[in-house]
Each structure stands twice: as structure tokens, then as C-alpha cells.
Amino acid sequence: MKNLFRIARWEFVTRFRSRSFMFNTIVSPLLFTTVIMLPLLFFEHQPEQSTKLVGIIDLSGENIARDLQKELNRYYRLNNTSPEYMVLNVSVNNSEPYQEKLGEFREIQARRDSINQLYNQIKQQRTRYYQNTKLPNRTYLLQSSYKKLQQVREEKELVDIELSRFRTALDSVYKFEAQKMADSLIVSGVLNSYLIFDTDFKETGIIHYNSNNPGDFLDTARLEKILQAIIIKKRILGDNVERSKAAHWLRPIKLKKFRVQGGVQREWDFYIQFYGPLIGVFLLFMAIFTASGYIFSSVLMEKNNRVIEVLLSYATSQQLMGGKILGLGLLGLVQIFIWIVITLALAGANIIPVQKIDYLTINNALYFMLYFSLGFLFYGAIFITVGSVSANEYDAQQINQLLRTVAIFPALLSLMVLTEPNSLLIRILSYIPFLTPSFMIMRIPLSTTPITEDIYITTLIMFASIAVLMYLSGRIFRVATLMQGKKPTWSEIMRWVRAG
Amino acid sequence: MEEKLLEVQEVSKSFGEQQVIDKLSFRVKGGETFGLLGPNGAGKTTMMRMIMNIIRPDSGAILYNGEERRKIKGLHFGYLPEERGLYPRATVLEMLVYFGTLNNMARRKAEVEAIRYLDRLGMVEFTDSRVNQLSKGMQQKVQFVAAFLHDPDVLILDEPFAGLDPINQVVLQEILTEYKKKKRILIISTHQMEQAEKMCDHICLINQARVILDGRLSDLKKKYRENAYLIESDSPMDYLHEMKGIKILEEKNNAYKFAITDRSMTITSFFGLIKGKVKIRKFEIVEPSLHDIFIKMVQKESAGA
Ligand SMILES: Nc1ncnc2c1ncn2[C@@H]1O[C@H](COP(=O)(O)OP(=O)(O)OP(=O)(O)O)[C@@H](O)[C@H]1O
Ligand SMILES: [Mg+2]
After folding, report:
1. Are strands B33-37 and B5-15 parallel, antiparallel or unpaired?
2. What ipTM did this prediction achieve?
């Protein structure tokens, strides 16, 4: 028994002093947290750096730019309170192709006007003929003027069709020219984006958004929201509703987000709710795989170096296994303890807003240690077996890689866990011992109702699988570590298990 | 002081289908150096591992002073495995202290003893070096220290001389001679017959899982003596060829190895026959070397099998 503690001490001390422990405890988590928080920082701060220019191509003649500017100013301002967005009409009234087309359009317009005039003249003349019953050849005059009127009307209709056709053409030339110009403004960096309002945008509700980066959902979400309000207002006013009434109806709505838990209301923050548990999973994963990884490399190294033979001659294989598990398990707990101290320090320095993070509790810290211990014992037992059985480091590392991938898999489903931490699928998945620690460490802070039942169930399942694994690995370890060169077959392994 | 005794009784071990040890028995007395010899693959290492309780026999018993090996508590074993193994990244001293404490030594005591032995093996300046910075032979010496640092009751060395230079071989022999004086159990295996001849008091030769020769070295030598003699003089002694009752086995530079074939011929009568003819420089009874016995026995056994 004493030897177990001596072995534990040795494993603990040699690993604690190693550079890799330092790396896994401080550098890696720091790196991960930074990488995960970085986009967040950009996301929040970059837009506030300078005013953005938004171009407008307005084919509707509604003077949308003015409304848009007004609304944007109301909601979005930079720190120094100057507007965050500037709206700019992209006008191409002076461009040559447009002027040319406009000339033609005017010509037709003039022609239509003169035809209209003629038509009206004839109409008036006919009225006169009609009224003057004493006119000598009245019947003839009426008849011939009617023919003329008919002719002019036909001509008038043709001109009208031509004119409306020309108007569309003119619009599309305008649009084309304006878009050409706006594109070049985007490319040259003057504009951040531009919007196209077609003549019928009020009815269709469709507005084109053009930018280098249409995926920038912060800007698009804001514009969408504001345009929605503007268009609806226009529609309402179009139905002859009083201005003041419309303004009242359209008073903006803001969702204040709260979360209900144990009767206490707290403001809900997506980043804290999402990234917090994700960092938690990462840390748990780090802790489990740092410690069990050390078990693994230690078994592998002792086997390959044949120190194992010296060790087995001075200690039993149970002592050896037990010592490693104890020593490196403690090392893992020390690692977690270091993290707790760092968290407390950061909280003390007000770098972490603890009062906003309701899952930073002693209880949850204890759960963290519980799932660390379970995960460590589980993966540790697997690693002892794999390490003692595998014939070379390469094979062993492959299995190591595979197990790590399996264990981190729940992090990929973190969004699912966030939206519904207690869905049937997530519950079932968290009963699988390989996945239990990662899932549970996300579910505990995210679930709005306590999941004590699942904590009991998963702990039981883990305990049972650890017991089985430890039993098997104890039997395999002893025989397998003395083997050299070749990989044992499955039937051999089965025999060792039976023979003990 | 009571006599120490290690007994191996009808021990068998097989790996899968292969019978590596077949009902092997021998006894090792405290104070004698016991040599476990045999060709490659004979099963020496396997036998030693069983004595160390690293692997368990399939059947048979290993007893120390009548007590079963597996149940013994508080007895210290020292082992130099055939395949040396150390922690490459640990420093020499901390690793030796670790091994020492595994054998119930106090840390302080382990440290003192380790430094003492390292000094003796000419390695004090390396106490704080990392193991992987040492040469192969130096690592070997560290491994020795790990085996007898804790002054074990049973010391088992698997091929201790492999890879050591002559000076260190002598140092090691000295240490072992000292150890022997404590009347404890000492078992070594080696392929170097001169070493075995110099060191061992008792020989156990195993081949193909079985003991083929077991006994005190001096008894064995007597037993395998061929009744052969060596005579060397300052001038040729051609007449020996004609002499009745003897047979020349080898001759070289006025030295003749012969065997007495006639029972009536004695050494005294032989000397009577050659008296006054030459000046004799050397005369000795030819002892069979362990080397010869080994080869002869293994070949005989293999031919018979
Ligand atoms: N762990 C093991 N699993 C399977 N076979 C083994 C194992 N250890 C030894 N053997 C086999 O047992 C036989 C005896 O091996 P052992 O190492 O005891 O021989 P040895 O006498 O020490 O030989 P050498 O002089 O070459 O060291 C060999 O045929 C070897 O292949
Ligand atoms: Mg051997």
C-alpha cells in the first residue's frame, strides 16, 4: 500500500514539474479563451470605430434617404455621439447615357403633349359644331371631325404606350448607371454598402442590399429592422391614417432579455450563456485529457523503455496502476484548483463579471470536479489498457486521437444544448460514458430546471463502466506490459482477462 | 546465522503453446553464487522473472526458506533485468531515490547509499545528470545501483557483464564478492563462461526448458575431468608417442596434452619413465573448462533429443 503512494508521488512530482503541465494548465486555456473571444471583441467594437456610408439608389422618388437617415441617427450613434451611419443618394442624373435617353424621352413626351393638344382642339371644335345647329354643312363637319378625332386618339394611344415603355427603359438605364457608380464607390472604399429601392418597393417589400460582405449580419439586421419600420409607416400613411396616430402605432419595441431561475430574474446574455459553458467544456476536456494522457504516456514509456520490469519487481501491478491513477488524478485536481484560483483572481480584478454569470457557483465547481474525476477514471482505465497493449507509439497515438475526438464531440452540439439542454436526444447522448462529462458540464449551467436526476443516472453509469474497465485493464495490464514487439490478438487479450 | 535457501520446485511455464519452462527444480543456498546458464531461448530470463514474481508459474512452487514466494512480505529483492530500463528524462539521483523508496528505504538513506555506490562506480559527477545524457555503459551502472541500492536479501542479475568495460567488470565483481559475504541469495545468468567460471560456485545449466546439469562448479569439473594431463619441457619429447598406456591428445611447442589409457599406469610410474630425459617446465592436471562442458552438454542433449 505504501508503494502505491510512493508511485503516486513520483508520477505527480515528475509531471507537475514538466513544461507540458504548465502549457496545458496556463497557455492552452488562455489561447482557447482568446481565440473564442476574439471574434466577439471585433464584433462588438469594430463598428464603432468610424461612420459608415450607406448609398441609396432611389427609383421610387419617395425620398427614402431622408427617412432612413433620420431613423438610423435615432438608434445608432458612435461613442462621441456622431451618427454611426451616413446615408448618401447615389445620383447619376448627369451621366451621358442617361442624359441621352432622357433627351429621347423628352422628345416623345413633347410629341405626346402636342398630340394631346391637337386632340383637345378637335374635341373643342366638335363641341362647337355640335352646339351650333345653324351651321350650313354641320353634318358633314361633324362626320369628318369625328374621323379626325378617331385618328388622333389612335395616335395618342400609341404615343402613350411608347412613352411608358421609354419610362421603364429610362429607369433601367438610371438604375444601371447608378449601380455602376455605387459599385465603384464600394470598391474604392467610399461606401460600405448601398441599397436599391425599386419603384414598387412599398408593395413588394423587396430592397436590394449590396456590399462587400453581405454576411455582416450586424449591419443587415439593423437596416432590416429600420426599413421595416419605414415601409410600414409609408404603407399606413398611404391608407390616409393620421400622422400622429401612425407614429404612435410604430413606436419602437425593445426586448429586454431575462432568464427565470429559482424565482430570481437576471438579464440574459447570449455570450455568457453560450461561450461560458463552451469554455467549461474545453477546460474539462483539457483536465481529463491532460491527466489521462499522462497515464497513457507513462504506461507507454515504461513499457517501451522496459522500466516496467524494474517497477514490477519492486511493486505489484495493482500498486503501479493505482499509484498512477491516484497521482495523476490529484494532478488533474490541482490543475482545476489552479483554474479556480485564476478565475477568482480575475473576478476580484473585475475582469470577469461574476455578478452576471450565475453559474459560477461552488456547487458547479464541485460538479466540475465530479465529472472530471469520472471522466479521468474512465479514460484513464482505457488509456492504461491501450498503452499496455499497443506494440508501438504510433498505434497508441492513433487511438488516443480517436478518443479525444469522441470526447470533444459534444462541444459541436453546444448550440443544440443551449437551445434545449434537456431534449431527449441530448439526454440520451449524455448517458453514453464517453460523452457524459462533456455533455453534463454544458447542461448543468444551461438547464433552467435542476437536472439532479440525470446527474445521479450518469454518475451511476460512469461508476459502473469505470468498475468494469478497471477490472479488465488490471488484468490486461499485468500481462501485456511484459509483451514486446508484437501486438496481441483479441483472443490472447480475452485469455488474459479470463486467466487474470 | 540461519542458512538462507531459495528453492525452485517443479516449476513449469508456457506462453501459449510454447513450453518455456518444464518442471524445473533447483536450490540456491545463501552465500554461494548461483549461475543460471543456458543457450539463447533456454528460459533463463523467464525463470528469473518468476523468482521476481513478475510473472507467475503455471505450476510448481518457488520457496524462500520454505515460505511461498507470492506470500512473502517484507523481503527485499534486487533485480537487474536483461533489458535495461530507466526513466530517460529523470535525473540519476532522483530516480535511484525513487527505486530505493519503493523498497522501503527512507529518502535520506536512499540518497546517501545512491551517492556512495555512484562514487564507487566512478560516477558521482553524474548524480544530477539526466539519464538520457549518459552513455550506454553508464546507464548500465546506474541500473546496477538500482538493483542493489537497498541491500536486497535476494539479488538476481540477468547478464550483468554485458556491455561493461574490463575495469567496471572488476568493480562489479568486487561489489558482488562483498555481497556474497553476507550469505544471501545471489543468482546471475551470463553467456560469458570465463566470468561464470570465475564467479560462480554453483552452476545450473538449462536447455530447452529443462535442467541438464546442476551442481557445485568444483564437483562438475571433477566429474567431467577426462583424466588428461599437460606436460611442458624445454626440448621435444617425441618418445611419448611410443610410450604404452598413454595417448597424446594435443601437442604444441614442446607441450603435450595426454590421457592415461592403461589402468596400471600411474603418474608416479609415468614420471619414472621420463626421469632424467628432459627438464620439465610445467606439469598439470587438465581441468575441463566450463566452456567445454557447456558445449559438450548442450550438443549431447540436442543430439539426443
Ligand atoms: N512474454 C513472453 N511471451 C511469449 N513468449 C515469451 C515471453 N517471454 C519469453 N518468451 C519465450 O520464452 C522462451 C524463453 O525465453 P527467455 O527470455 O526466458 O530465454 P533466455 O534463456 O533468457 O534467452 P537469452 O539467453 O537469449 O536471454 C523464448 O522462446 C521466448 O520467445
Ligand atoms: Mg534472457
Report:
1. unpaired
2. 0.81
